[in-house]
Amino acid sequence: TPQEPQPSVTPSHGMIGHDARTLKAIRDMKENRAKHRKWQQQAYNFLERPTGVKFHRHRFMMVLVCLIFSVLSTIEGQERPTVKPLLIMEAILVVVFTIEYFVRLWSAGSIGKYQGCYGRLRFARKPICVIDLMVVSASVIILLVGSNGNIFAASAIRGIRFLQILRMLHVDRQGGTWRLLGHVVYIHRQELITTLYIGFLALIFSSYFVYLAEKPSIDGTSPNGKFRSYADALWWGVVTVTTIGYGDHVPITWLGKVIASCFSIFAISFFALPAGILGSGFALKVQQKQRQKQFNRQIPAAAALIQATWRCYATTVGTSCSGTWRLFKVAHHHSDVTNVDDVFVDERQSKTSKNPFISRISLDLPMFRSGATRSKSDRNKSVQFETTIDLDENPADGCRDLGFRVDSIFYSRMPESYKNVVRATRRLIYFLAKKRFQQSRKPYDVRDVVEQYSQGHANVMMRIKEVQRRLDLTLGKPSSF
């Protein structure tokens, strides 16, 4: 049975207006969401990835001044004068750190792994965020308890005061200092373990022998009443090998003094080695970072030099590389020109074709004519052709072949004077890139110059020895003739 024709539905003005309002609301919602995400990203970069120092410097100064007032409040006679300024600064810091904590928690949503409630909880469980929460909570408790004027005087909150010292960790929120220290310790872990092990053995043996020399006799009499146990001797050994020397435990007998002198020289030298190892490790790490920065500065200069070298070669006479000339294409949309080829490439998608990979490219290639100007009829007689390429099977090959033909046609139509100008420009760019690359390779320190000269001298000596060896093999040694 034939189907009944469906009645055509014509949208009314009300439906069109409703759709327009809906689209506008969706567009506004997307814009608001984009702005919200942009503000989140900016806040996160400002707080977690700082590039400036003004805000963080002011915050550090506030924390430092508050710490100074906290120290003054523990001095006898300075409690009353410092209570009011300390309360004011504590209140300001509590407000600043509370706002900063919630802004950090909100801005963390710009990172994929911190989005949603679980992501925020994951961000809040970071060690530095836990410290922030502890510091804010401790400051609030101290302000609430000390609001009656006896701040820091109550023994119940003296333990909470330690949490306020953790504010100094805000100076390095990213933990770069601790990462650097951990990296240096990890690299030199074998040397540190060896020195600490030998130093610990020296400490144990020296303390034991000094205890045997200074311990009480069998009848209970002791020449030195300080070394009554092996623990006292160990305390003396720790104080001695760390070069502190409190003087509360000192060997008195000659045998004890000789043993202490011999073992102190040996043990102190090993206990001082870790400081030198860590110091040299830090120096090498800083030097490595500076070398990495210098190498990173060489990468753009090297890339520019390689690009300039290739383009200079591609524009020389006798080469078949025509793709570089595309950079110097001059396009004029049917305007008066003087002695310059007009190349107009129009790429438009075929609306009527069912295959979206079919493109029609029109090339307007006017013939180069000598003379001051060309008339309108001459411009209309320019060579025009259209090429339709089916890119269904292999679109990349079609585009590559067409691009090569366009570059070849453009290169053949370009005047020789224009080519010479391009070649001269490319050569100047090459020399400039070469000079910048040579400047970026200059050593930044005198030690690098000495190291380069020493390496060059070693290479020269190695080559001289190789030449001498070959001469000996060919002519024989000097003593043989």
Polypeptide structure, described:
By secondary structure, the protein is mainly alpha-helical. Among the domains are: 153 residues, Voltage-gated potassium channels. Chain C (Four Helix Bundle (Hemerythrin (Met), subunit A)), CATH 1.20.120; 107 residues, Helix Hairpins, CATH 1.10.287.70. Helix content is 64%, strand content 5%. It contains 15 helices and 3 strands. The protein has a 3-stranded antiparallel beta sheet, covered by helices on one side. A hairpin with an 8-residue loop joins strand 1 and strand 2. Helix 1 crosses helix 3. About 16% of the residues have low confidence.
Characteristic key phrases:
481 residues, mainly alpha, Four Helix Bundle (Hemerythrin (Met), subunit A), Helix Hairpins, three-stranded antiparallel beta sheet, 15 helices, 3 strands, flat, transmembrane helix, ion channel, membrane, transmembrane
